[in-house]
Amino acid sequence: MIKTKEKPCKSIGMARGFDTCGSMTLVRKYGMCFKCYGKWLTTTKEGRNKLNAATIKAKEPRLKLSKARSHKKEFDRLGTLLKNVRNVCHKYIKLRDKYKPCISCGEAWNDEHQAGHLYKAESFSTIKFNEYNINGQCVGCNIGKEGNEGQYHVNLPDRIGIDNYNELNRLAALEKKTDFKWSRTELNKIRNYYKSKL
Q1: CB atoms within 10 A of CB 108
Q2: Which of 18, 21, 28, 198 shows a CA-CA span of 20 to 30 A to 144?
């Protein structure tokens, strides 16, 4: 089996000419480490075009689906209700954390910042809508570094307080011992909670 070799972070392809850090890295996008790749995505015209194209491609099927169904059917289905709760929750997080730096790397706030989970939503169902588990995060950390969890753990106690951080870790540890499924009642309660905060 051929092993991947570390190479210096250096922009290639459509990113050629972008100023990079030069650090040695195993995983690269357009020859760059994930930090530089995230920076390229958000600070250059070519990067923003690539990010916008990916966003449009991801949203298009969802838009077609939502237009095809009636308003009532949308809210009756559990899967659709989950998505609706997620959208309201993330909208609140982005508003709450507006002008705050990225929770992981400290990058200054910008319009591209996302609602990033410390404990991944797909793996930790019980805390996927916990507001302490979701914080404003730059694209480079949330997507490029798959959450940049190490720095997220380092910085989170300062933002939410050590007691809330310890409680979040306790809830995450309990997750492994449960076979959890959402009910419509619980989801509606969470959706109404975030709507009231908005």
Answers
A1: 10
A2: 198
Q: With 0.70 as the threshold, say if the pTM is over it.
A: no
Q: Are 139 and 24 in contact (CB under 8 A)?
A: no
What pLDDT, on a 0 to 100 scale, did the predictor assign at position 130?
Answer: 97
Residue 160 CA to residue 135 CA, distance in Å, equals 10
Predicted pLDDT of residue 62? 64
**Which of these, 142, 141, 165, 43, lies nearest to 90 by C-alpha position?**
142
Give the DSSP H/E element, type plus range, for residue 194.
Answer: helix 184-197
For residue 141, give the nearest of 168, 115, 169, 172 by alpha carbon. 115
Distance, in Å, from the CA atom of 51 to the CA atom of 45, rounded to the nearest integer, reads 10
Average pLDDT by consecutive 10-residue portion of the chain (198 residues)? 79 88 86 90 89 77 63 68 94 96 96 96 93 97 94 97 96 82 91 94
Rounded CA-CA distance 2/124 in Å is: 35
Q: What backbone phi and psi angles, to 5 degrees, belong to 156?
A: -60, -40
What CA–CA distance (Å, rounded) separates 15 from 29? 9
